[in-house]
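Record 1 of the preview.
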Amino acid sequence: MLNIKKVLMPTDLSVCAEHGMRQAVLWCERYDAELHIFHVVADTEPGSVKEKKDRARTALADHIERYEPFGFKTKLELRFGGPAAKQIAEYVTEESIDLVVMGTHCRTGLSGIFMGSVAENVVRDAPCPVLVVPMHERELGETPPSRILVPVDFSDWSHNAVGYAKTIAEAHGAKILLLHVIEDVVLPDFYLAAGSALFLQEPEIRRKSEERLKTLFSSASGPDVPMEAYVINGRAALDIAGFAEEKDVDFIVLPTSGLSGINRLLIGSVAEKVVRRAVCPVLTLKPFGHQLIDTAATQTKTPAEVSS
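->
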């Protein structure tokens, strides 16, 4: 069971933010959590500070009225000016928020690869898991997920993500899809003769990857839930989101890379591209900050032991 007591839903009062609210309600209902609705009043709006806040409170009153009948507590927080992402990250620390749920823009065409800058910065900076919900033609968030995708690169962080996914899958009666992408390598023609042995080994690489996915899944502690393992060739940063759409995935659990110091603020390039391209909600996990489960309990073997 995930330990979720407080869910933060930042909103800019847009349609995209409302789309994320559906997921926030779903998680609050499931875990009997308190919903915090957060809005930053832009200092560029006309009027005095009081007038701006009054307008925002009036606009947000409908949110409180609609979601209070669900049975969980709600709290409205208004902040004034400053970068929204920074304000959100600070509020997460102040209130010990367990999970941030926020909508983001997802347009058609080439612009669809760009997520809202605020959402991207929150994914990078917030010291807790962040669930990003894109706006898409499907009505996301109305029902619990039934197919959960976990991209696996066999790192410590992907091993931890499997433990999360197992817990979520049991709570929602869902199936887990594990995916490993064998990265395509583009070589000049004159490499082909020397590299032919590598290409001949591809079936063996695929077979070992499938076996290792199954071993990793069984080694991660958690409930016994249905699982399917997939190994594909391609580019992880580009093909994970496409695979999720092809398999009609409802939910992606994705670790981000986090290092010490300033590098900790940089989301992994693969994770960043998946979050930007995915048409389903993506739960991003970090190796630092607040965790929803005991990360030590998500594995009975270390990744090194799994690979041996």
